[in-house]
């Protein structure tokens, strides 16, 4: 627990940088990061100067260059500011003709890279991780997911507060895809995450609060500001 969002971001950015340094330069394979969108990691991206990634989720049905697409988000907040080679960036394509095969290819790409070293996550107000909405199978892999109304409502702030503008579906890594990462670091900021954090940490593993699946992970950490811990 850190006092505020700035100290959370500093801690997480420093943690990730240390992990990458420990891994060291490798010709055999890169250090693979899974990186989330949302407001929580923005400050981490400002601080970070790390290099490699595999994107976690993407809306279905909005163009790639839409300002709220997760493609635009990641380039805007992170990739344009670091020395990243585009071939090292993997973001799910929500406009692919065959969404199922897009998801399958994403899993194959992760596997070909030797798996995800560190998966950075946020947490939804309904306890989702990536776009694994309540009721998701804890064994799920990358797939198309219909968004819960709560998520559409929460994300409408990025779409002029108009729920009709928010995509209704998204592509997302599955809970099992995340559990397969060698390490998972979750950022939880603000009082609006307090209930979800309590359900995911203090209750049992539950597919209605999908981040709770991380209780099964041997190397998982939540970094929260004080407001997010109000219900603990
Ligand atoms: C979104 C994303 C998640 C993100 C979460 C929280 O819907 N799919 O990856 O972690 O909701 O977003 P925020 O950090 O803006 O609260």
- Total count of strands: 8
Briefly note the structural class of the backbone.
Answer: alpha/beta
- Give the domain tally: 1
Q: Identify low-pLDDT runs.
A: none
N- and C-termini, Cα separation = 11 Å
The CATH topology corresponds to Rossmann fold
Indicate the percent of residues in helices: 25-40%
Number of helices, counting only DSSP H or I runs of 4 residues or more:
7
CATH class: Alpha Beta
What is the mean predicted local confidence, pLDDT?
93
- Bin the strand percentage: 5-15%
Biggest beta sheet summary: 5 strands, parallel
Report the order of strands and helices.
HEHEEHHEEHEHEHE
Q: For the CA atoms, what is the radius of gyration?
A: 16 Å
- What spatial form do the alpha-carbon principal axes imply? globular
Strand order of the largest sheet: 2-1-4-7-8
Q: Which compounds are bound in this model? A: 2-amino-2-deoxy-6-O-phosphono-alpha-D-glucopyranose
Assembly type of the shown chains? single chain
CATH architecture: 3-Layer(aba) Sandwich
Structure in words:
There is one protein chain. The protein is an alpha/beta fold and 232 residues long. It has one domain: Rossmann fold, CATH 3.40.50. 29% of the residues lie in helices and 13% in strands. The chain has seven helices and eight strands; from the N terminus they run αβαββααββαβαβαβ. Strands 2-1-4-7-8 form a five-stranded parallel sheet, with helices on one face. The longest helix is centred in the first third of the chain and has 19 residues. The mean pLDDT is 93. 2-amino-2-deoxy-6-O-phosphono-alpha-D-glucopyranose (GLP) binds next to helix 5.
């Amino acid at each position: 627990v850190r006092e505020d969002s700035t100290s959370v971001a500093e801690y997480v950015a420093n943690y990730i940088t240390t992990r990458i340094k420990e891994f060291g330069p490798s010709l055999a394979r890169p250090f693979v990061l899974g990186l989330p969108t949302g407001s929580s990691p923005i400050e981490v991206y400002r601080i970070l100067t790390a290099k490699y990634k595999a994107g976690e989720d993407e809306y279905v049905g909005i163009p790639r260059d839409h300002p709220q697409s997760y493609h635009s988000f990641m380039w805007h907040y992170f990739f344009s500011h670091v020395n990243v080679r585009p071939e090292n960036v993997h973001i799910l394509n929500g406009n692919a003709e065959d969404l199922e095969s897009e998801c399958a290819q994403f899993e194959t790409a992760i596997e070909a890279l030797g798996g995800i070293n560190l998966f950075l996550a946020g947490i939804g107000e309904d306890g989702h991780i990536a776009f694994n909405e309540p009721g998701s199978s804890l064994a799920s892999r990358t797939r198309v997911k219909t968004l819960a109304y709560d998520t559409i409502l929460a994300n409408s702030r990025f779409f002029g507060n108009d729920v009709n503008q928010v995509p209704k579906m998204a592509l997302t890594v599955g809970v099992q895809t995340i559990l397969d990462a060698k390490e998972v670091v979750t950022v939880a900021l603000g009082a609006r995450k307090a209930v979800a954090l309590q359900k995911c940490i203090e209750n049992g593993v539950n597919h209605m609060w999908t981040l709770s699946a991380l209780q099964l992970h041997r190397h998982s950490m939540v970094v929260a500001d004080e407001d997010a811990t109000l219900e603990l």
